[in-house]
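Annex B.
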Amino acid sequence: MISALAIMALGAIVLGAALGFASIKFKVHGNPLVEKIEGLLPQTQCGQCGYPGCHPYAEAIAKGEAEINLCPPGGEEGVRKLADLLGREVKPLDAEEKPKQVAVIDENTCIGCTLCIQACPVDAIVGAAKQLHVIIEKQCTGCELCLPPCPVECISMVTVPETVDNWKWKYPVTEIRKVA
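Ion-translocating oxidoreductase complex subunit B: predicted structure tokens.
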């Protein structure tokens, strides 16, 4: 009995190693341009660009089917980075640039319906049915997709104040020199 279990365990290890090797040996790489474009996008998966996430938007940009100025979370800085990568003209953002926000749930109003959890594209909401839900602030991208499904409107968006830890340059160094 013990020897049979040992043989089965050894077989599982050998099979796992073989499958692991096969997955590495035959790994299929995606389009390098799509991967570079996606790396410049903010990964909010919010759909504000008109595509269901950052990867489909990156694919559309790479194919020439989408403009580079459709991502509000990426802002003007994101448009500049995409233009630099692709050798395209910088165009004004085709939406209002918003400050960084995170969702906050009012614990006295939340009924634990889980609709916000289902709507969150980055799994930033934790909770269970009929229990209070909580936002993981570091995961929240501020996409606002959790707001519409909430039947009791217990979720609000709060602007994250800019600090030394989360600030970013808005303009390339060459533009700063021109101003100075």
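Helices lie at 2-25, 32-40, 54-63, 75-86, 115-119, 173-179. The domain at 99-169 is CATH 3.30.70.20 (Alpha-Beta Plaits). Further annotation is deferred to the next reporting cycle.
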